[in-house]
């Protein structure tokens, strides 16, 4: 026997993996998915198994329809501890101070110059204030220590929004920094460190 039931996805009885994904969708997202499924409805219509299978095995397609990159991005943004880019700005300055200190300790003035020029589009000569300092600083094989200190102190004043733009312009990790986190890796680190559930 074959029969058709007309009802909304909000009332659909999902199961197994399909239920896990549907449970993470808001009511408005389920309504949007319902409209999408109506647009791509098979000739013979949707069966309950087919609907559940789309949620279970092809959720990437539904997540992309909703505006997410993929299922992983959907799951990430539905995490109760999710931090959007504006949230990340609250933590970038503190994180950058520790990162900057590490560069200073490991690489000294050379590291400061490299970071300033490659990530912040600066010129180390900006910090030479007199003709004597400019002459001393022109020897690129032996930067004076005061150049590194001035760059270090300057970078400590960079505002959060500018840090986000300079350091995470490439979501695949900064091309001029080795072993540097991607924005998503940084996001996950901050989500773990600053759990909203623990702040309530």
Give an overview in words:
The protein is an all-alpha fold and 200 residues long. It is 60% helix and 0% strand. It has helices at 16-23, 27-39, 48-57, 59-65, 71-77, 85-119, 131-137, 145-155, 160-167, 183-193, 196-199. Helix 6 crosses helix 9. The mean pLDDT is 90.
Looking at how many chains there are and whether they match, the oligomeric state comes to: single chain
Rg, alpha carbons: 26 Å
Number of contiguous helices: 11
Spans of at least 5 consecutive residues whose pLDDT stays below 50 are none
Total number of beta strands:
0
Report on the biggest sheet. Answer: none
End-to-end distance: 53 Å
Brief digest:
This protein is mainly α and 200 residues long. It has helices at residues 16-23, 27-39, 48-57, 59-65, 71-77, 85-119, 131-137, 145-155, 160-167, 183-193, 196-199.
Topology at a glance:
Layout: H1 16-23, H2 27-39, H3 48-57, H4 59-65, H5 71-77, H6 85-119, H7 131-137, H8 145-155, H9 160-167, H10 183-193, H11 196-199
Helix pairs in contact: 1-3, 3-4, 4-5, 6-8, 6-9
Features:
11 helices; mainly alpha
């Amino acid at each position: 026997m074959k029969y058709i039931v007309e009802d909304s996805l909000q009332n659909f009885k999902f199961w197994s993996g399909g239920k896990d994904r549907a449970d993470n969708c808001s009511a408005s997202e389920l309504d949007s998915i319902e409209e999408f499924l109506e647009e791509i409805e098979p000739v013979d219509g949707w069966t309950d198994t087919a609907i559940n299978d789309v949620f279970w095995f092809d959720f990437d397609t539904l997540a992309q329809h909703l505006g997410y990159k993929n299922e992983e991005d959907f799951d990430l943004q539905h995490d109760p501890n999710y931090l959007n880019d504006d949230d990340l700005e609250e933590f970038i300055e503190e994180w950058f101070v520790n990162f900057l200190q590490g560069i200073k300790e490991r690489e000294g003035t050379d590291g400061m110059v490299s970071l300033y020029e490659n990530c912040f589009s600066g010129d180390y000569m900006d910090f030479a204030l007199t003709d004597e300092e400019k002459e001393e600083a022109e020897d690129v094989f032996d930067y004076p220590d005061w150049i590194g200190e001035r760059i270090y102190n300057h970078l400590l004043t960079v505002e959060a929004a500018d840090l986000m733009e300079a350091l995470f312009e490439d979501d695949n990790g900064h091309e001029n920094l080795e072993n540097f986190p991607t924005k998503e890796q940084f996001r996950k680190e901050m989500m773990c460190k600053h759990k909203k559930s623990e702040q309530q």
